[in-house]
Design brief:
Oligomer: single chain
Number of helices: 3
Structural class: mainly beta
Largest sheet: 12 strands, antiparallel
Radius of gyration: 31 Å
Shape: elongated
Helix content: under 10%
Strand content: 35-45%
Distance between the termini: 87 Å
């Protein structure tokens, strides 16, 4: 027989306080008045669990019974550059170039022998490695056509690039991953722990698999303003293209959980190797791209020197972006669900409550791409009105 220490206030494993454990399969019993004794004829401590626990979970017991695993001290690095150049081509034309660059580097807070040192849950007291870059570049041209007419055109390019990951290490400094301890398949050359959880008084690991996401936007904005008597007329167009690329190894790394359903204690289930959940997939690679045009007109009318009235109209056609690989979800006006044929018919002009009922989305294809639509397609026009008084 072997004993299992479950803390200062022992939980009665497999007993009435076990929280629903199945007494038919639970290997713990009471021997000679001593509770929580493992019947080694029924089960043995799992060698893989013992190795993970002894090499990846350092002691950190506090007087109040709580456990805290701090991460390493970190120094984040921020490098920012901003600049602007203005050039007067003539008395009526000016060209401006603006740049803003921001780079963040945050090292991983992993500590050898402490697999919880990169736990990235609230209150975010630990850290996983990040490298983020942000670029914002714009070139604008302002042309004073006449004393009453001005045109401003701008071209721009923006990009946000985010990369993050953290490899937890055992007490020998080697990366920890389940393929080192049990027979599972993982990506060649990769070794990460992902979403490891031990419930019912246990612990939770972080979600720190390598992930990358890059978003790029470029476009052209143009605005023409003309003063006619008491009217200030403005007309313009916005045209921009957005591209988003996601590449993450989630969930290629096995996501394993122990919830205490066998013994009443997540820790006991873990040490015995009684797994409650297992999840693994092929990772996520997604590319989304599309154009976003917009057109507007506005009139600002000065009723009095201290009172102005403004009215305008804007049109933003909802051109659905294309999703690579046939992935996407859509609200399709007029389409009936085949999975739930009794659900309301999707369409424009319905009440907000009715639209909220349309929670079942379906894919629809156009020339090999999946188009992502939304209820915004029903209302591409918007109007503005306002007054100013001083």
């Amino acid at each position: 027989m072997n004993g299992l220490d479950t803390g200062a206030n022992p939980l009665l494993l497999c007993g009435s306080k076990s929280g629903g454990a199945d007494t038919r399969t639970c290997p713990f019993t009471t021997i000679n008045g001593k509770v929580n004794q493992l019947d080694t004829n029924t089960a043995q401590l799992n060698q893989a669990a013992l190795t993970v626990a002894t090499t990846g979970l350092p002691p950190g017991q506090q007087a109040n019974g709580g456990v805290f695993y701090p991460g390493a001290a970190l120094i984040d690095s921020y490098n920012e550059v901003t600049g602007r150049v203005d050039y007067n081509v003539s008395s009526s034309q000016r060209v401006s170039l603006r740049t803003f660059i921001d780079k963040l580097t945050e090292p991983s807070g992993d500590i050898a022998g402490n697999m919880l040192s990169v736990l990235n849950l609230n209150p975010w007291s630990q850290a996983f490695g990040e490298r983020m870059e942000f670029y914002n570049e714009a070139l604008s041209h302002t042309w004073t056509i006449s004393p009453t007419a001005v045109n401003t055109a701008s071209v721009f390019w923006m990009q946000m690039s985010a990369h993050n990951s953290a490899a937890v290490k055992d007490s020998s400094g080697k990366n920890m991953c389940w393929s080192r301890y049990i027979t599972v398949n993982e990506l060649p050359g990769q070794c990460y722990m992902e979403g490891f959880s031990v419930g019912s008084g246990g612990f939770n690991g972080g979600w720190t698999e390598p992930s990358q996401e890059v978003r790029t936007t470029y476009g052209l904005y143009d605005n023409f303003s003309k003063t006619v008597g008491k009217h200030l007329l403005s007309f313009g167009a916005n045209l921009q293209h957005q591209f988003a690329q996601e590449l993450t190894q989630y969930p290629t790394t096995p996501i394993i959980g122990f919830n205490g359903q066998y013994t009443g204690s997540g820790l006991a289930d873990f040490l015995l190797g009684f797994m409650s959940s297992y999840e693994q997939g092929a990772g996520e690679i997604a590319s989304l791209a599309g154009w976003q045009p917009g057109f507007y007109g506005q009139d600002q009318y000065r009723l009095r020197p201290n009172l102005s009235l403004t009215a305008g109209l804007r049109w933003d056609p909802n051109i659905a972006p294309g999703v690579t690989g046939g992935r996407g979800a859509a609200f399709v006006p007029g389409q009936q669900s085949t999975l739930f044929p009794n659900s309301p018919l999707a369409g424009c002009g319905k009440t907000t409550a009715r639209l909220k009922m349309l929670s079942r989305f379906r894919d629809f294809r156009d020339k090999g791409r999946v188009l992502v639509a939304s209820a915004a397609a029903c209302r591409s026009f918007s109007s503005t009105a306002g007054t100013a008084w001083r």
